[in-house]
Specification:
seven-stranded antiparallel beta sheet, 171 residues, alpha+beta, 6 helices, single chain
Length: 171
């Protein structure tokens, strides 16, 4: 299991938009691109992120979807033997300066050798996880940064709708 996190100077609803956005999410997954599989026309539980890594395709099926707070997904791993899954948990928490985005990745399997193989396969990603999260933060700020003159108010003080209206005075 490994963990990484980053503070983002955006309110939780914009951090959520960044985390849900396929282009920005591809930064965290080191994917060439990501496509969405929606259920009932919406992204949520049982929907998926389909990640393309060169010739390899992986599907992250959404297990838990709590807007502005948490996304949990499972990804079946192409390893021989019994099923092995990677479980990812992305959490967003409000902070005084915006939001904290934390990710925890764990391998779920009963075979020790599968855990060893997964550790070897993800070594580069684990080693670069802080830089990856910082690149995600920079992309999120570039896309959703507050316009000049916007008023920053912590989302736990007012409703998300009011926070959105204050952050986008021209809308």
């Amino acid at each position: 299991m490994w963990h990484a996190g980053v503070d983002i100077p955006l309110p939780p609803h914009l951090a959520w938009e960044a985390l849900s956005d396929p282009e920005l999410r591809s930064i965290m997954t080191n994917s060439d691109r990501i496509e969405l599989e929606r259920t009932d026309g919406r992204l949520g539980v049982e929907g998926a992120y389909v990640c393309y890594h060169g010739e390899r395709v992986s599907v992250q099926t959404i297990l838990e979807w709590r807007p502005f707070e948490r996304i949990v997904f499972a990804e079946a791993l192409a390893l021989r033997g019994p099923t092995a899954e990677m479980i990812g948990d992305f959490r967003i928490k409000p902070t005084d300066g915006g939001s904290r985005v934390d990710t925890t990745i764990a391998l779920r399997t009963k075979r020790r050798w599968q855990r060893l193989v997964m550790r070897i396969l993800t070594e580069r990603h684990r080693r670069n996880r802080e830089a990856t999260m910082e690149a995600f933060r920079d992309g999120a700020v570039a896309r959703f940064g507050q316009p000049e003159g916007a008023i920053g108010v912590p989302s736990d003080v007012i409703s998300d709708q009011a926070a959105t209206a204050l952050a986008n005075p021209d809308a």
